[in-house]
Fold this protein.
Amino acid sequence: MHAISSRREMQQCIDECLHCYRTCKEMAMSHCLQAGGRHVEPEHFRLMMNCSEICRTAADFMLSTSPLHAQVCAACAAVCDACAENCEQIGEMDDCVQACRACALSCHQMSESLGAIGVGTSRQSSTSLGNLPA
Amino acid sequence: MHAISSRREMQQCIDECLHCYRTCKEMAMSHCLQAGGRHVEPEHFRLMMNCSEICRTAADFMLSTSPLHAQVCAACAAVCDACAENCEQIGEMDDCVQACRACALSCHQMSESLGAIGVGTSRQSSTSLGNLPA
Amino acid sequence: MHAISSRREMQQCIDECLHCYRTCKEMAMSHCLQAGGRHVEPEHFRLMMNCSEICRTAADFMLSTSPLHAQVCAACAAVCDACAENCEQIGEMDDCVQACRACALSCHQMSESLGAIGVGTSRQSSTSLGNLPA
Amino acid sequence: MHAISSRREMQQCIDECLHCYRTCKEMAMSHCLQAGGRHVEPEHFRLMMNCSEICRTAADFMLSTSPLHAQVCAACAAVCDACAENCEQIGEMDDCVQACRACALSCHQMSESLGAIGVGTSRQSSTSLGNLPA
């Protein structure tokens, strides 16, 4: 019902994850390293790297049509939120803030769609995404 | 206090994650593909791929000394549990079952150590792993 | 000179790599696993997994504005060519063939642009992509 | 014959790659970010990130028993050599230098074992690692 994410929503979430991966990675490795100073402070730079990594992994789970993507998307949403908040404080990171906010929203919805609770139980693991509405 | 994971525990969890990544990847791509039949059924094979991917990512977060590793470890524990359960049903996957069980246990402890709840909040994201007891 | 890839060409190659990663991963984990038979034969399935992995890595190198991307793109082009050829033999893999061919072409050009030869030497490693024409 | 890598050599190369991935990632994200200064200069930090990424990918190809690992190992050897050389110039990076040198040596041997030339041709892609001597 309302709790089931459609294929369209999942494709959009994959888009957001790959866009956020790309934005975080590129800004960290070009803008942040070139700018130096507060842009290479440990907390900020780790968040940028963490965010790019979990976005890439969340996309990978959804591309694998895995019924276990919900909890990975929940983790991705949390990291994206933390990265967006931190980038706002650092400043001059608007593209990153925007990409993280959009990805967090989409991943949060995805994490609720199939229910992050109970992932890993035998009932849950038999869920097939082949049954999703188009 | 007792809820804080030491560096030693984290290094062990990284070991377990990389070992589980390696075991799942190698068994899926050699044993399962060669054996065919139930070993390449979608649910089983997806779990093997998902498990190797999230184990690699959880290790990456811990190697990055990220304070956000707790929720990623929680997701990793859930996927490892699901993979272990499924591999037991498939049979002839003892190495994989063992690696998944050990990794799930270690990741579960790691996810509780810093608290998966509240990850992404400003308080949590300012936590530094540099303060961990050795 | 003519051998220098512009930023525009690199952004397009990143696009092609991420599209090929996505296509190979999704077709392998949904279409191939569901279809079974020749679609899960070891050689074919390994190529699909290898191709998605190296495409993701090649994109990562280019996003890192690394002067060492040339040799990774060369490896990516070789794997994409092998995957495209194999997918044509298997049949019913048109999207994958198309994505692999486009990615191989783009990566091949990228691997020639800065010269795969000499990567890792002190001269090469001091090359900065910051000097690339826009 | 002598040009064929045994399973034992490949397992050792996987060990070296995962060790080098782990060392580069951990030193970059803890030691380099904490130390700042020359440790976060763009060229050095990018090499550390590039090296960890390609090591992880080279390990993944070998774990997949892919006949296409030779060219990926060649790229890995080149990046490891560049990273080792750069880390020696930066100083205080002994663990990283050691891990990169060992990995470069092992990957270089692996890239020669099956022949990096001709990877992606139909003859090469039909090679099965299942025939490797133990």
Remarks:
- Chain A has a mean pLDDT of 86.
- Chain A touches chain D at residues 29, 33-34, 36, 40-42, 45-46, 49 (CB under 8 Å).
- The longest helix of chain A spans residues 7-35.
- The CA atoms of residues 57 and 108 of chain A lie 15 Å apart.
